[in-house]
Design brief:
The complex is a heterodimer of chains A (523) and B (480). Chain A has helices spanning 14-31, 37-61, 91-114, 119-138, 142-151, 153-163, 168-199, 208-211, 218-235, 244-251, 254-279, 281-307, 312-331, 336-367, 383-396, 403-418, 420-445, 462-480, 483-512; strands spanning 70-78, 83-89. Chain A has 523 residues and is mainly alpha-helical. Chain A has a domain at 297-511. In chain A, strands 1-2 form a two-stranded antiparallel ribbon. In chain A, a hairpin with a 4-residue loop joins strand 1 (70-78) and strand 2 (83-89). In chain A, helix 9 packs parallel to helix 12 (281-307), helix 11 runs parallel beside helix 13 (312-331) and helix 14 runs antiparallel to helix 15. The longest helix of chain A has 32 residues, at 168-199. The termini of chain A are far apart. Residues 1-9 and 514-523 of chain A have low confidence and may be disordered. Chain B is globular and about 70 Å long. In chain B, strands 1-2 form a two-stranded antiparallel ribbon. In chain B, helix 5 (128-146) packs antiparallel against helix 10 and helix 9 (228-235) crosses helix 12 (296-317). The mean pLDDT of chain B is 89. In chain B, a hairpin with a 4-residue loop joins strand 1 (63-65) and strand 2 (70-72). Chain B has helices at residues 15-33, 37-57, 74-97, 105-124, 128-146, 153-184, 189-197, 202-219, 228-235, 238-263, 268-291, 296-317, 319-347, 363-366, 368-382, 388-402, 406-432, 446-464, 466-478, and strands spanning 63-65, 70-72. Chain B has one domain (15-478). The two termini of chain B are 39 Å apart. Chain B is mostly helical. Classes of the chains: A mainly alpha (523), B mainly alpha (480). The interface between A and B is medium-sized, with 32 and 30 residues.
């Protein structure tokens, strides 16, 4: 089949299929009659499952020994501006696509019970969201990237706003305004970048592979990097820009929280790795200490705030701030180990935090409360639930043998090479992480059953087992045998680093020639 | 005795305006006899369609007539078609809207078509006197139309306000023309451009340009000449508001762009900075004041002010990119705004305008089609891809960045972010606020719904396949 041929063939449509199948499903679901609630659920599940199977084809056909973009699709879209429909994946985006397509069917399956009102619309938005997310990971044209980037805001906004909790309207609008403002500034930076490329005499293009070579003065790099970095930092979210996250996560319905935490936050870190860092390496180098500091603050601050949360969902939300701090630390270690660890940790966080939100959602459906103090001794009535919860908890705190350990270990190793102080401080985050997770686990599952109504709770139902089992399996597999994942990432990560170093060397050369340029300022 | 020399007339060039004016007279006459409003509506619709087809057939023609005062070029055709199509959408809306209002259909449609004829003159005018004539033909028709709903107090108020302030603006226009004539000795735009290059009578010229800026600023509702907009838009019949927000504004810009980016292009150093300030103010004031509105119609009025601001950014950038961006965004803006006013009209009924945000509670699920289309219009107005509004703003900011107007571009995108606040409020009301589940029978509104769906389809088409429309906008501007 042509889809499995080596990359570069322009007749390849597999990526497009992965991107657009959910959208097609979304519109089909919308066309179903309103009474067909079960039909809508099943159709949504089937389409997301097909998407997942298609994306497995990407993995099967992926050549792991090259850093080239593969499964390229290139068609003119707005020729006048050099805008193309340009898709492609490398070792970095492959797994993020897989993470998205892997989690979406599970979330949809979980929502069979959880979502009872406006069912059709819910699955419409879920599937539309999947298209937006996958599209963002695979777009190599900056215009197309921006379109997908904004496109996914709308479904997420509605998912939080319609199916969310008490303060859903506040949370959804905060989420929207925060991300929109930041991304609009990035749009201007994109326009400037493309203009700078065109001024150098090249034809106008939004193709990021060509834009990597734009020569910019350090001052220009500083401004553009700042605009990109703010847009991505809001998504990550990095420390002072994180305030939308607890609101959005807590108010969103379980499915929304899972996608938000597991996939959407990765768009920020992915954006740094794909765009902000290789496009503006000089500015990035100057900003590195600053970003490392913010990452460490995020790690420690997120963990400390998570510790004092009385609400399970809020605790998980703040733990994301801490975990994503680790990812940023790994990225800005600027060495292969750190970056590979960061990518690995993105996947880990996607799996373990996704599972945590699912577990919290399951208990909330039974008890209609998420307060830790309302639980206690749950191990007794819910042994299976407790066992799964334990595995996920241990994965989240990085127990060796589970996935979290691999990522955190690589990140710290990488960070140690860049800044010992940052690595040491970040390690304290690991300890804090163990403290808040285990303490929470203890209060929820151990001890006597303090509330009578908890005795009557039903343990995991078959459907819930079906949702959790694949996630737990992946947590174990990725913990025991990380090699196939790291192998595939390696060439792409090395290529990104090489590109940054080449650009930096060029900038130094330009500076050395006595050009009247000021030293680079990060932000 | 000297004989009066009549210049040769190229009848082809005046075909669009001639046909349109003829249609207006026919409608006025028919209005005396026919008392079936729907039939009159159909006649208007078909007549405008014929005008549009004839106009489209003229594509590629380029000529000047009436001694070089009246132009037929791609630029004029672009706007003619925009006016005629917008006019058709408004007529479709009106065919439902007029029912029960007691507005005499013959007069209404006749005046509407005359207004369109005036706009066509404005788009073709290569002469300041002709700009004035077109503007007056259009304005006087619209003054009357704004007050067409005679039994409604707020309609009367709107007409009065619009007329009084409009008359002032006309005064400014005439003063400006006189001063420019004093400085250059010419009315014709090409002659003015040539004379201005020699920089004669600088003070006179600059004063004239400034006055014209005021006059055009009034017509396109730019801050600080926007005061009339919210009241007039709110008071006028909703269909006429749509006409004003779209076609009248586009006509204002048609003349504005031709005069400033063509005739006064050499004076950009003088008016560029003024326009810069005006653009920044217009965007900011429009968006910020829209934030506090509870009445959707009024909110859309401020939104139209804000969008005039974005287009002014394109004018500041000027040059081919800026001009084309202005045309393109006007096109994109037209359909989303027409559609939004269409939804406002559809949700109201005679005697019960239902224009407050609270009235929109739960509409998204109660009337799914109106909900979805309104969501498209609001997201498009905010500038979210893949809708027309996004590509429009994208084009404008590209032009601004290319010409180095970074600060203005930043003000522009920050305004876009602010605007999300109030556009999204409509979606919150429609989808996130629980409202009455079923509100009994909803009147069938086939024409109105058709016009809304058409606008929505155009909004999506322009957004997803921008290349064709961009080409049109660029060719249109380059034909100047």
């Amino acid at each position: 089949m042509s889809a499995f041929e080596p990359a570069g063939g322009s007749g390849n449509v597999l990526l497009s299929l992965v991107v657009w199948t959910p959208m097609i499903g979304a519109f089909l679901v919308l066309l179903l009659p309103r009474e067909q609630v079960d039909g809508a659920r099943r159709a949504a599940f089937v389409f997301s499952l097909i998407t997942f199977l298609l994306s497995l084809g990407l993995w099967a056909g992926f050549r792991p020994n090259t850093a080239e973009f593969q499964f390229l699709e290139q068609h003119p879209w707005i020729p006048e501006w050099g805008i193309q429909y340009l898709l492609g994946i490398d070792g970095v985006s492959l797994f993020l696509v897989l993470l998205t397509t892997f989690l979406t069917p599970l979330v949809i399956l979980f929502s069979f019970d959880g979502v009872q009102k406006r069912v059709k619309e819910y699955f419409f938005f879920m599937l539309a969201l999947e298209t937006g997310l996958v599209g963002t990971f695979v777009a190599l044209d900056l215009f197309l990237f921006y379109v997908f980037w904004e496109l996914m805001l709308v479904p997420m906004y509605f998912i939080i706003g319609i199916w969310g909790g008490q303060r859903r309207i506040y949370a959804s609008i905060k989420f929207l305004i925060y991300t929109l403002t930041a991304s609009l500034l990035m749009l201007l930076a994109i326009l400037y970048l493309v203009g700078a490329h065109a001024r150098a005499g090249a034809p106008t293009t939004f193709d990021v592979r060509l834009l990597y070579d734009v020569a910019l003065s350090p001052a220009e790099q500083g401004w553009l990097f700042a605009a990109f970095a703010v847009a991505f930092a809001v998504k990550v979210p990095m420390f002072p820009l994180h305030t939308w996250l607890p609101d959005a996560h807590v108010e969103a319905p379980t499915g929304g929280s899972v996608i938000l935490a597991s996939v959407m936050l990765k768009l920020g870190t992915y954006g740094f790795l794909r765009f902000a860092m290789p496009l503006f390496p000089t500015a990035m180098a100057a900003a590195t200490p600053f970003i490392l500091a913010l990452a460490v603050v995020g790690i420690v601050y997120g963990a400390m705030v998570a510790m004092v949360q009385p609400d399970l969902k809020k605790l998980v939300a703040y733990s994301s701030v801490s975990h994503l701090g680790f990812v940023m630390l790994g990225l800005f270690a600027l060495n292969p180990m750190g970056i590979q660890g960061a990518i690995y940790q993105m996947l880990n966080h996607g799996l373990s935090t996704g599972a945590l939100f699912l577990l919290v959602g399951m208990i909330y459906e039974r008890r209609h409360t998420r307060l830790i103090s309302d639980f206690g001794g749950l191990w007794k009535p819910l042994p299976r639930y407790a066992a799964v919860f334990m595995v996920v908890t241990l994965s989240s705190i990085g127990l060796p043998g589970l996935n979290g350990f691999v990522g955190e270990f690589l990140i710290l190793l990488g960070a140690f090479g860049q800044s010992r102080l940052a690595a040491v401080l970040a390690s304290s985050g690991l300890i804090l992480g163990a403290v808040y997770m285990l303490w929470m686990f203890q209060r929820v599952f151990f001890g006597p059953v303090r509330h009578e109504e908890n005795m009557a709770l039903a343990d995991l139902r078959p459907r819930e087992v079906a949702v959790l089992a694949p996630v737990v399996a992946m947590i174990v597999v990725m913990g025991v045998y990380p090699k196939p994942f790291l192998e595939v990432m390696e060439p792409s990560v090395k290529a990104i680093i090489a590109r940054m170093e080449k650009q930096q060397a060029r900038a130094v050369a330009i500076d050395g020639q006595g050009a009247a340029t000021k030293p680079a300022r990060g932000v | 005795m000297e004989r009066l020399l009549l210049p040769a007339i190229d009848w082809l060039a005046v075909l669009p305006v001639g046909l349109t004016a003829l249609l207006g007279f026919v409608l006025l006459a028919l209005g005396l006899f026919a008392d079936d409003d729907e039939t009159l509506g159909w006649i208007t619709l078909i007549g405008l369609a014929v005008c549009a087809v004839v106009t489209a057939c003229l594509a590629g023609q380029k000529s000047m007539t009436f001694a070089g005062t009246f132009a037929l070029d791609g630029y004029a055709l672009f706007f003619d078609l925009l006016f005629l199509v917008a006019g058709m959408v408004v007529v479709l809306m009106s065919m439902t809207y007029l029912e029960g209002t007691g507005i005499p259909a013959g007069d209404y449609y006749g005046l509407l078509v005359f207004a369109l004829a005036g706009m066509i003159v404005m788009a073709s005018a290569n002469d300041l006197i002709l700009v004035f004539l077109g503007l007056e033909i259009m304005s006087i028709s619209v003054y009357v139309l704004a007050g067409a709903w005679r039994t409604q107090l707020r309609s009367n108020e709107a007409a009065m306000k619009y007329f009084l302030l409009g008359a002032f603006a006309t005064g400014f226009l005439l003063y400006g023309i006189a001063l420019v004539y004093g400085a250059t000795g010419a009315f014709r735009l090409d002659l003015i451009a040539a004379a201005a290059a020699g920089a004669p009578h600088r003070a006179l010229m600059v004063a004239g340009v400034a006055m014209l800026l005021v006059a055009f600023g009034f017509k396109v509702a730019a801050v600080p000449f926007h005061m009339w907009t919210p009241d007039v838009y709110e008071g006028a019949p909703t269909t006429i508001t749509a006409l004003m927000a779209v076609a009248v504004k586009a006509a204002g810009f048609a003349a504005f762009v031709r005069v400033f980016l063509h005739a006064f292009a050499g004076l950009h150093a003088d008016w560029g900075m003024l326009l810069w300030v005006m653009a920044a103010l217009t965007m900011t004031v429009g968006n910020v004041l829209a934030l506090v509105q509870r009445n959707v119609k009024r909110m859309l009025a401020y939104s139209s002010i804000a969008h005039a601001g974005y287009i002014l950014v394109a004018l500041v950038a000027s040059g081919a990119a800026g001009g084309a961006a202005a045309l393109y965004h006007l096109l994109a803006y037209s359909f989303m705004t027409l559609g939004a006013f269409g939804v406002v009209a559809a949700l109201g009924s005679v005697g019960e305008p239902n224009e407050m945000l609270d009235d929109y509670a739960g509409v998204g699920f109660r009337r799914p089609l109106l909900g979805v289309t309104m969501a498209i219009f609001m997201l498009s107005l905010t500038g979210i891809p893949p809708f027309a509004g996004f590509t429009g703003k994208f084009y404008i900011f590209t032009a601004a960045i290319r010409d180095g107007y970074y600060v203005l571009a930043v003000i522009g995108v920050l305004n876009s972010a602010i605007s999300a606040g109030y556009y999204i409020r409509v979606l919150i009301a429609m989808y996130l606020t629980p409202g009455a589940e079923e509100s009994g029978r909803v009147a069938r509104q086939p024409y109105l719904v058709t016009s809304i769906v058409f606008s929505a389809v155009m909004t999506v088409l322009i957004g997803v396949f921008p290349a064709l429309w961009m080409q049109l906008a660029r060719l249109g501007f380059l034909s100047l």
